[in-house]
Amino acid sequence: MRPPVPVPTLSRRAKLVIGAIAVLLVLFTVVGTLTNVYVDYLWFDSTGFTEVFWTELQTRALLFAVAGVATGGLTALAMYLAYRFRPTFRPMSLEQQNLERYRQSLEPRRGLVLTGIAVVLGLFAGFTAQSSWETWLSFRNSTDFGRTDPQFSIDLSFFVFDYPFYRLLLGFGFAIVILALIGSLLTHYVFGGLRLQTPGQKLTPAARVQLSVLLGFFLALKAVAYWLDRYGLVYSDRGVVFTGASYTDVNALLVPKTILVFVAAVCAVAFFANIVVRNFLLPAAALVLLLVSSLVIGVAYPAIVQQFVVNPSANEKEADYIERAIKSTRDAYGLDQIDYVDYAQQTTGDEVDPEAALAELRNDTETIPNARLLDPNVLTDTFTARQQIRNVYGFPEKLDIDRYTVDGETGDYVVAVRELDSAGLSENQSTWINRHTVYTHGHGFVAAPANEVVAGSEGGEPNFTTGDLPTRGNIPVEQSRIYYGELIQVNGQDVYSVVGAPEGAAPREFDLPEGGSEDRQVNNTYDGEGGVAIGSFFRQLTYAIYYRERNFLLSNAVNEESKVLYVRDPRERVEKVAPFLEVDGDPYPAVIDGRVTWILDGYTTSDSYPYSEQMQLGEAVADALTGTGTTALPNETVNYIRNSVKATVDAYDGTVTLYAWDEGDPVLRTFMKAFPGVIEPKSEMSDELISHVRYPEDLFKVQRDILTRYHVDDPIAFYEGSDRWQIPDDPTQNTEENQPPYYILAQRPGDDEATFQLTSALNAFQRENLSAFISASSAPETYGALQVLQLPGNTPFRGPGQVQNAFITNNQVRPDLTLFDSENSDAVFGNLLTLPIGDAGLLYVEPLYVESTGEGGFPLLQRVLVNFGDRIGYANTLSEALDQVFGDGAGVVASDADGVPTEAEEGEDTPGVEQPADPTDVPIPPDGTDGLPATPDMEQAVQDINAALEALSSAQRGGDFAGQGQALEDLQAAVDAYQAAQQAAAAE
After folding, report:
1. Which of 374, 462, 456 lies closest to 919, judged by CA?
2. Partner of 971 for a Cys bridge, out of 692, 775, 786, 948, CB 3.0 to 4.6 A?
3. pLDDT number for residue 22
4. Exposed (0-12), middle (13-18) or buried (19+): which is 388, by Cβ within 10 Å?
5. What is the DSSP letter of 203?
6. Backbone dihedral region of 668: left (phi > 0), alpha (psi from -120 to 50 degrees) or beta?
7. Three-state SS at 470
8. Residue in 417, 353, 360, 350 with CA at minimum distance from that of residue 387
9. What region does 887 belong to: left with phi over 0, alpha with psi -120 to 50, or beta?
10. Which DSSP string do the residues of 431-448 spell out, in sequence order?
11. What pLDDT is recorded for position 935?
């Protein structure tokens, strides 16, 4: 026998050093963790949502403890039993002699090793389990759907709430048994209970009993897994073109799964019997039976049925199951109540029927007058140039559309709030004092009618009917300070502010500029309900640790009345107080009861709705504008979604309120049981708030994606894919990303008045022809009503891409684009809107902006493009463009109906807007356009045009309105000179 291997030991000093380092690491970890939890608690306490904090914390802790103790404890117990019943004497063999050194190393510290293994496995299992807290709460508070699935006749709540939890339990059961089995095998091997290379008996009786029991438990769990697999067929993807149990699943796999349940149970009994029988032949035979059975009846037989029975006539065999999938998918995505309208445009091919179309146009007193000319995705720079006021303010990349009723007339407005733009602070403004105690908030609400520009403005400027500082205009705002918004971040990180001061102390927060001097300003002290009080030394120390900022302890700006504001993005606030919701990526501001309020949409989702098609949420809602002023949703798998919650966040004090918008949603009702009192009933919403509720974009994008396939009723046509639709690419962005949906105020066919709605065109599959037009109403009386206008499939109608191509190749448009896209300016296409005009057809309207390429340049509306059938209108105003398409007098609908103009009256008193000279038409360049040679007079005129454009750009950057007016006069003179020279050249 080899001499014992000496066990290495550490010196006392080394032990002390290692121990001190370990204590410090543990101390820092504990302090950091407790600080994070305490700061979280203070935030929830300040918002009134401690119920969410405690429920989530307790649930996570419970799952962590149960999973950790079960996994670590049972694995350690199995290893302890293996050690406890180790053989006292081991045969003298080379294998055992080699293992002796390991036994000698483990023996003195076996307790420590066992404890370490249990702790590590327990921590890993605990951290894994605690992330499934929503699964446990859903199971515990399950709410019936009131509908059963067509195969098992079980309420759908079993599949949505119970089945995922059973699968979670089963997964942990398998993990525990496998870990215990591995631990037992290793322990038995090291301590001689398992002898792989030693002649004679390979297992001791104790090892045989323990391994038989563990294998028996494994097979018992396998029997349970087979039983659950039966219900899992409702999520099968064997059907390829649809989700759910297919013909093969129901007729060739359901019964075999049941048989395998009993086979696995028999195998489990055989292994348990091995405790007494003491012969592995019986369990081995049972295990072979299970393997053969699973391969023959669980794999081979269904494959044969699929290949030789289903595939030759799959469209007929799968018809009943496709019907299930269609119905379930429509139910899951809220598409079961759609108004389909056969919509025959009044054209012959692309030829317009002028009389019928003009009659419908004149009867339309709602859609055309409200045609939106201002694109909220383009005008951020314009809003910034005209309404930023100071560099500390800013507007988001994407503005928003909302509707307001002013003087009895309802119209849609491009709206935004003038937020604090932390990223825009200059270097001297970025000290800790300035960033966190002086520049704490934005100020003001800005709105411009979406169908107007200021007549006489610089080429089409928004008519800011509400704006300036202090805020004034036709939308009254009583509290316009913005402490909570989308821009109060730096590098994606929330920027906190320390506010509040003792009574009588001088205000230190920059509020708004005063007068004409850059140095004069009005300061303010925050007196809202938001924020966490940090008047005590302990809380100041807490936040000093949390933010790693000593100024919480040293600065005079932090006092006994101070509060700290954090988690200030509206979307993040709602996600934090309602972690069971997915929040729409585009919050929008509205003035409610005189206060600026962010409105957000919350979705309840599930990935376990039976027979419903699954999709990646992030991919489904992505379009050409995702990430531009909006937040992309996580790419999670879902197959059920409801807009179940409307949320509001007060822009001044950060108050979050959740309203149950879809009170019948079982998923929402389940979480309302789990978090009682967190969500208020829909009846608590004020009429004014409801009047600003919009149909959410992300839900609409999910629904239109599903609708491209599931609008088909006939299962055979669905299988063949002969009537699929497709979301068109955005033609204005020169990208292959989906065209975004657009909010419009329009009158739908069959309606008596215009409603605020979200709309999208749909093409034929892999074609550019238009197939359908979908709209979702946001009107309180008809909210959520989906209408689909279906165009005849035997006649090609232009889709958005074809219309855009017709625009840019038009003989009138192309020369202007050449000039607009010059060294000094860029042409910017606005959103291509599709508008239904009664029963006449669909009218396309697109604004065209020109933006100076110089510093400080911003887009201004220059032209309006219109398409109907094969006719294109291109003019300065919508009225003129309509006249070109439908004949003289058609444009009066746009300018006179209901008294809503497409341009604001010249000289109108608009807050914050000077009234410069009239815009001009810009001519084509003298480079062979229309076959005319460039004359010296034409070349000189072009040079004068470029000089005037450069002067205009400089005046815009400097805010010199007089200079802008002079530049416009020079531009007009140059244009007249060019046109005269062009006519002279043509006459020759």
Report:
1. 456
2. 948
3. 75
4. middle
5. B
6. alpha
7. coil
8. 417
9. left
10. SHHIIIIIS--EE-EEEE
11. 78
Q: Is the dihedral of CA 210, 216, 218, 224 positive or negative?
A: negative
Crossing angle for the helix pair 74-84 and 163-190, to the nearest 10 degrees: 30
Q: Return the closest-CA partner of residue 589 out of 680, 493, 484.
A: 484
Q: What's the average model confidence in pLDDT over 337-353?
A: 68
Shortest CA distance to 786 belongs to which of 772, 797, 796, 799? 772
Give the separation between CA 431 and CA 437, rounded to whole angstroms: 10
The answer to whether 788 touches 842, Cβ cutoff 8 Å, is no
Whether 368 contacts 844, CB under 8 Å: no
Structure token pair of residue 534? 């940090």
Higher pLDDT, 194 or 918: 194
Q: Return the number of other C-beta atoms located less than 10 Å from residue 327's C-beta.
A: 16
Spatial contact of 840 and 360, defined as CB atoms under 8 Å apart: yes
Q: And the tokens for 409?
A: 């007339």
Q: What DSSP element (H or E) covers 893?
A: helix 892-896
Question: What crossing angle do the helices spanning 163-190 and 133-140 adopt, rounded to 10°?
Answer: 130
Would you say 181 and 229 are in contact if contact means Cβ atoms under 8 Å apart? no
Query: Tokens at residue 822, please?
Result: 């010059």
Strand spans (E) along 304-408: 338-342, 347-348, 351-352, 393-394, 400-406
Strands 656-660 and 680-681: parallel
What gap in Å lies between CA 671 and CA 135, rounded to an integer?
A: 11
Q: Contact at 8 Å (CB) between 865 and 814?
A: no
Q: φ, ψ for residue 88 (rounded to 5)?
A: -70, -40
DSSP string for 654-717: --EEEEESSTT-HHHHHHHHHSTTSSEEGGGS-HHHHHT----HHHHHHHHHHHHHHT---HHH
Q: Which helix (H) or strand (E) holds 524?
A: strand 521-524
Q: How far is CA 206 from CA 75, 213, 773, in A?
A: 17, 11, 73
User: Please, what sign has the CA dihedral across residues 604, 232, 635, 332?
Assistant: negative
Global pTM reads 0.85
Let me know: does 429 contact 381? Beta carbons within 8 Å. no
Amino acid, res. 426: S
User: Left if phi > 0, otherwise alpha if psi is -120 to 50, otherwise beta: which for 70?
Assistant: alpha
Chain-centre distance for alpha carbon 42: 28
Exposed, middle or buried by CB within 10 Å (0-12, 13-18, 19+), for 736? Answer: exposed
Give the model confidence (pLDDT) of 43-70 as tens digits. Answer: 999 999 999 999 999 999 999 999 999 9
Nearest one of 877, 867, 864 to 805, comparing CA atoms: 867
- The full 3-state SS of 58-116, as one line of letters, equals HHHHHHHHHHHHHHHHHHHHHHHHHHHCCCCCCCCCHHHHHHHHHHHHHHHHHHHHHHH
Q: How far apart are CA 11 and CA 189, in angstroms?
A: 33
DSSP letter, residue 234: G
Going by C-alpha positions, the residue among 30, 45, 42, 121 that lies closest to residue 79 is 121
Q: Which residues of 661-693 are buried (b: 16+ CB within 10 A; e: fewer)?
A: bbeebbbbbbbbebbeebbeeeeebeeebebbb
pLDDT of residue 863 exceeding 70, the answer is: yes
Q: Structure tokens of 248?
A: 């093969």
State yes or no: pLDDT of 898 exceeds 70.
Answer: no
* Residues near 187 by beta carbon (within 8 Å), at least 6 away in sequence: 79, 82, 83, 86, 193
pLDDT tens digits for 624-665? 888 888 888 888 999 999 999 999 999 999 999 999 999 999
Nearest to 133 by CA among 894, 563, 772, 671: 671
Q: Are 439 and 506 in contact (CB under 8 A)?
A: no
Rounded CA-CA distance 619/612 in Å is: 17
